[in-house]
């Protein structure tokens, strides 16, 4: 009985310590890449950003680190404030609107008609630690432009963008900053390419 009592007291003490210990603090990040400059000539039509989907390994909110060719790890203490798919969809629409690549940009989630729909797929979104000495932010996005109605269902325009930005320091803040740089470069190229694309008049 004496032994049982000691065990019970020890369990209570340990539980009390666990309750008093502060919970781990998660750091949450919201990306804000630089806006692309306005294009020289806009497409005279309208566009709506549909959905920017994310590959399954990077779809969650936690930051993902690539430690080896086949080994990845999530960072429990660092995460995006909102799911990356939602965030990148909104950021893409904002870049199109600020660049004036199209005469009108319909915000995501709106049911208003548009001549074109721009979708995307992110196949890479992680911090690459394979070098051992230098960590980099890796982002790969493919964009697809469709006719909103009357088309064949095949994209009329598609382009892949891949960026690898080294981190100034091996910190989560530096990683978020490198992601902003990578996405800023991608959006600058995307808006220029779309504005210069030879798009036929959309069918109605």
Determine the fraction of residues in helical runs and give it as a percent range: 25-40%
Beginning-to-end CA distance, first to last residue: 85 Å
CATH superfamily descriptor? ABC-type transport auxiliary lipoprotein component
| Overall residue-averaged pLDDT value | 88
Largest sheet: 8 strands, mixed
Tell me about this structure:
- The protein is α/β, with parallel strands linked by helices and 204 residues long.
- It has a single domain, classed as Rossmann fold, CATH 3.40.50.10610.
- It is 29% helix and 35% strand.
- The protein contains three helices and eight strands.
- It has helices at residues 2-20, 84-99, 172-196, and strands spanning 27-29, 43-54, 62-68, 71-80, 102-106, 116-128, 136-147, 157-166.
- Strands 1, 2, 3, 4, 5, 6, 7 and 8 form an eight-stranded mixed sheet that branches.
- β6 (116-128) and β7 form a beta hairpin.
- α2 packs across α3 (172-196).
- It starts with a helix and ends in an 8-residue tail after the last helix.
- Residues 5-15 have low confidence and may be disordered.
């Amino acid at each position: 009985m004496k032994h049982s009592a000691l065990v019970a007291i020890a369990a209570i003490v340990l539980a009390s310590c666990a309750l008093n210990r502060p919970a781990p603090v998660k750091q949450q990040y919201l990306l804000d890449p630089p806006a692309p400059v306005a294009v020289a000539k806009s497409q005279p039509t309208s566009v709506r950003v549909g959905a920017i989907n994310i590959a399954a390994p990077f779809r969650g909110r936690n930051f993902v680190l690539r430690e080896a060719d086949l080994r990845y790890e999530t960072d429990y203490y660092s995460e995006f404030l909102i799911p990356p798919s939602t965030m990148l969809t909104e950021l893409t629409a904002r870049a199109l609107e600020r660049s004036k690549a199209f005469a009108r940009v319909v915000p995501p989630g709106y049911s208003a008609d548009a001549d074109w729909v721009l979708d995307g797929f992110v196949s890479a979104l992680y911090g690459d630690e394979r070098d051992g000495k230098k960590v980099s932010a890796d982002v790969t996005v493919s964009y697809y432009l469709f006719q909103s109605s009357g088309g064949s269902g095949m994209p009329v325009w598609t382009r892949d963008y891949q960026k690898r930005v080294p981190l100034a320091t091996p910190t989560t803040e530096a990683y978020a900053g490198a992601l902003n740089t990578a996405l800023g470069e991608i959006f600058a190229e995307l808006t220029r390419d779309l504005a210069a694309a030879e798009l036929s008049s959309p069918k109605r």
